[in-house]
Amino acid sequence: MNRSYDKTRKTRSQEGVALIVAITTVAILAVMLADMHETTGTAFAVSTSQRDALQAEYMAKSALNLTRLLIGKEPQVRRFVDPLYRAATGRPAPQLPVWNFVDELLSPFCTPEDQRGTLVQLGIDFGDTIGFDGLPGECHVVAVSENGKINVNDPLFLDGERARNAVATQLFSLTGGYLPESPYDAIFNQEDESGNITTRIDLVSALIDWWDRDIQRTDFDPGAGQTRTGGTGTEDDSIYQLGDDPYRNKNAPLDSIHELRLIRGFTDDFWATFVEPVPNDPEARILTIYASGLVNVNEASPQVLLGRLCAHAPESTLCVDPLESLKFTQILGTIRQLIPIPLFSKPEDFMNFVEGKGSQKELYGMLVGFLGEGSELLFVPIEIPPDQKEPLARSLATSAKIFTIEATGLVGRSQVRIQSVVNFHERWVPPPPNTGRMSGLGVFHYYRMN
């Protein structure tokens, strides 16, 4: 009896050990399975993210290249519009701003198949298309003409004193330097974090000293519209040497818009007023470092055009009378909202507009006929000094040659944005000792992928 009891007890003991071993084994296997599941899930998520990021990258690249192609083919598009434009204005059609509509024009290439309802309603048939049935995501493009902004960099096609004078007078005028009382005076009357006050003239001089080749400090005479070097010492004794992290003037052209932050006077207030009024929005920028120095009268904001005009006619009523300045900017801005086509075929058309010349088909004559002679809403025409008409005409343009293009690809939760600046100017040549000519798709001045 005792022997049977011991045998039963031993069997139960073995069964208990076996149960513990089984439970332990199951627990270990469960941990291993959970670890394998987590590792596999993580690897799958990473691979999916990498796949989406790669697809988003190439959708952004495709959108960028299609935008370059559209801009390059603008002359062919203009030929179809030219007869209609001539019939309406009596002048040949200027460059068409196709880049302003690039996001809509490229939507068939950037819209997934299940989101094409609106396009189909517009009459766009995808039935015979090839390669558009499996788009993994979407893409968006913003293209902006840099020739519509004031260039503060070393101009591409001006040298020496002409380059310095052009940048100095434009920037001084843009910041309200020729107005008796400017709304921007407060920016130049306050101390910075170092306790220094930077006047308009200080700002202009510091900017030119940053990119000009010499080491002599630049002096600017706004009355004469002239700059000179070597009058007040060298650039090496500038305030850049007084900070905790001293540095020197670059003495070379700027490479990016954010490099302006290193220059004296480009404070947060100045940046928010003149450089980038809307953060990270290239369309809102007033200043640029990429343009050739010519201002496109069909693309530049009224504020920029007024600044360029006042650089050549600083004593005109548009430049010294705040009310006349306001009338000019408001009426030109309103016209552009109502008439979304280029207003001027050549720089002289803009000059006739501010001088109130031309027939009833010209812009100023049309405004007089619409608003009435002597309307308080219409600015008083000015007279551009005769010796300034030719220089002003040479500083203006009616076509865009340099563009900021931002293309964004979206696939799943991945987003890739390409920021680029593309030059289409036919006068571009590669730096020595290279040889070549402008490509039909332009050349990159700046390229960055985020």
What is the element layout, followed by pairings?
Elements: H1 2-72, H2 74-89, H3 102-105, H4 107-110, H5 117-121, E1 138-145, E2 150-151, H6 160-174, H7 200-211, E3 216-221, E4 226-234, H8 268-275, E5 287-288, E6 295-296, H9 302-312, H10 317-320, H11 322-338, H12 347-355, H13 363-371, H14 386-394, E7 396-397, E8 402-411, E9 414-423, E10 443-449
Parallel strand pairs: 2-5, 6-7
Antiparallel strand pairs: 1-8, 3-4, 8-9, 9-10
Helix pairs in contact: 6-7, 6-9
Quick take:
The chain is of the alpha/beta class and 450 residues long. The protein has helices at 2-72, 74-89, 102-105, 107-110, 117-121, 160-174, 200-211, 268-275, 302-312, 317-320, 322-338, 347-355, 363-371, 386-394, and strands at 138-145, 150-151, 216-221, 226-234, 287-288, 295-296, 396-397, 402-411, 414-423, 443-449.
Notes on the protein architecture:
It contains 14 helices and ten strands. Helix 6 runs antiparallel to helix 7 and helix 6 packs across helix 9. The longest helix is centred in the N-terminal third of the chain and has 71 residues, at 2-72. It is an alpha/beta fold and 450 residues long. It has helices at residues 2-72, 74-89, 102-105, 107-110, 117-121, 160-174, 200-211, 268-275, 302-312, 317-320, 322-338, 347-355, 363-371, 386-394; strands spanning 138-145, 150-151, 216-221, 226-234, 287-288, 295-296, 396-397, 402-411, 414-423, 443-449. The strands form four sheets. The protein has a four-stranded antiparallel β-sheet with strand order 1-8-9-10. A two-stranded parallel sheet has the order 2-5.
